[in-house]
């Protein structure tokens, strides 16, 4: 199994943010959209209220029909159901419409920021990290981010519905409501356990996708070299391996995600069975009215749905969270080249002085060790040395493309890190 996970470790600049941090940051992106979000929230509440009204209305009518068997009652019910349906549709329409706009705007901003992050990273960043993986952070990961928000709103509305229903159920029959709740801990435990596994699986599948992207991107950008050296077969073999890995990872995550949902549905069905049985007994001995029994059987699906859907939404939600994590990590990657000050610069004469300088691109090899050289202003010098001696590196240091690790680099006698 080892080979499946090879190379799917986090990139060095990946941070592991807590869910709280991630969500806090996502919310910050939404802050400018606050009025729209409040409107959406109101629509969510209204549509939840209307959705709860359906089973209650029908249950009420069922009980009323026991005593007054009139056409009028039925007409009234039909009219009420119709009106509630239309209103609920309107609320949902506005909710989806405004959510889509707000989410679109936020993705626009996030993607701009991610791209700005790409430009802001140091040269050394790109020595280390394949550009393909970075591309997928800017394109697909920002997209995934949007799903977090849409799903969270859906989940919120479902939870609201859940609490409304629970309140109604307890009000109508304490005895049956308690029975309904027998299953709840099992569902909650299952969902929580799943939550832990899901995050890991999700991260791995995203990384394997990024690996596929990186591979394709590298081959395409270096295709002339590859063809000159007749490397097509090798590249194909390499891609096949990466692609196979992505397949394995996805199959595994598919098993995890698709396994949990049926399990939850089964447990929920057990809950329905209990309510049908005990509610039925209650109707027989007249401790529960037919209307209330109907209300329970009808609303138990509404009731379980939020709980079971956390589990199924969780996968999507986790995908979105880890995608946003990847985008934020790209934004937050520490700059290697650090200025200690930013003083204004006058006209420079151009004296360059390397003083006991230490420099390496990575920990495998030191390029400059205790290097000292003074180039006077206006002086022309020739750097001579075998290939790889470090001639070009001197220029890169003066351009501040890379950070040196020790000693000083002075321009006109001033530390280059203070400009
Ligand atoms: N981006 C990089 N990442 C890691 N190592 C690097 C990088 N660029 C150069 N090196 C290494 O640093 C050393 C110095 O490289 P540099 O390019 O400064 O040599 P050079 O003297 O300019 O060589 P040449 O005469 O071939 O141009 C070499 O061993 C090289 O392999
Ligand atoms: Mg060179």
Shape: elongated
Give unreliable regions as ranges. none
Output the number of helix runs: 12
Q: What is the CATH homology-level superfamily of the largest domain?
A: ABC transporter type 1, transmembrane domain
CATH topology of the largest domain: ABC transporter transmembrane region fold
List keywords for this structure.
419 residues, mainly alpha, ABC transporter transmembrane region fold, Rossmann fold, 2 domains, four-stranded antiparallel β-sheet, 12 helices, 73% helix, 6% strand, elongated, binds adenosine-5'-triphosphate, binds magnesium ion
Describe this structure as you would to a colleague.
- The protein is mostly helical and 419 residues long.
- It folds into 2 domains: 2-332, ABC transporter transmembrane region fold; 352-418, Rossmann fold (3-Layer(aba) Sandwich).
- The protein has helices spanning 2-5, 19-30, 34-67, 71-120, 123-128, 131-172, 174-181, 184-221, 223-228, 232-284, 290-332, 391-398, and strands at 352-359, 368-375, 406-411, 414-415.
- A 4-stranded antiparallel β-sheet has the order 2-1-3-4, with no helix packed on it.
- Helix 3 (34-67) packs antiparallel against helix 4 and helix 6 packs antiparallel against helix 8.
- Residues 391-392 line the site of magnesium ion (MG).
- Adenosine-5'-triphosphate (ATP) is lined by residues 127, 361-362, 367, 385, 387-393.
List the helices and strands and how they pair.
Layout (H helix, E strand, L loop, with lengths): L1 H4 L13 H12 L3 H34 L3 H50 L2 H6 L2 H42 L1 H8 L2 H38 L1 H6 L3 H53 L5 H43 L19 E8 L8 E8 L15 H8 L7 E6 L2 E2 L4
Antiparallel strand pairs: 1-2, 1-3, 3-4
Helix pairs in contact: 2-11, 3-4, 3-6, 3-11, 4-6, 4-11, 6-7, 6-8, 6-11, 7-10, 8-10, 8-11, 10-11
